[in-house]
């Protein structure tokens, strides 16, 4: 269909976005600006004071886990939209496992950092702690949300209104899409922070 054949209603439908998704995009934008500002400040302070970040070997597995997490969530979204509910739940569970694995890697990494103890009087080290704390809070929220979505999907496996009739629940589509958006952001943010730390403070 050519653009000339689109009615006003068609154009409105094409650009319409659910408020929850719009809110997530705005939140992602603001969080991106926040982390870019913090890492820029950290980079600026690097010329004035300096610390060495020596991560444990587990740290280097984290990018693999976040890539797996994004992959499983992306596939889960597509599977639910095609009414492949059982496979959808399996991929959601795999995403949950990879998210928990990522959380554990982060936990042991920062536990090791705290045991070594960076000098908090060094301004760049203080910025480092703020960055890691904020990312940990986003990660904890993401794992909690993923656990809730998976549990609801598992509990609804015998839902007579939707799943047993192979009908897609629009509310669940929205929930999975928003969750996937958030995790893509968290995963992408971690790749950025991982490379930032490796190239600047290792």
Mind summarizing the main beta sheet? none
Specify the helix fraction band: over 70%
In total, the number of strands is: 0
Overall tally of domains: 1
Return the average pLDDT rounded to an integer.
Answer: 81
Classified by CATH, the class is Mainly Alpha
Low-confidence stretches: 1-15
Principal-axis shape equals elongated
Q: What is the radius of gyration?
A: 21 Å
Here the CATH topology equals Four Helix Bundle (Hemerythrin (Met), subunit A)
Find the CATH superfamily: Cytochrome c oxidase, subunit III, four-helix bundle
Q: Tally the helices: what do you get?
A: 6
Q: What's the order of the H and E elements?
A: HHHHHH
Please, could you describe this protein's structure?
This protein has 202 residues and is mainly α. Helix 4 runs antiparallel to helix 5. The protein has 6 helices and no strands. It has a single domain, classed as Cytochrome c oxidase, subunit III, four-helix bundle (Four Helix Bundle (Hemerythrin (Met), subunit A)). The N and C termini lie far apart (55 Å).
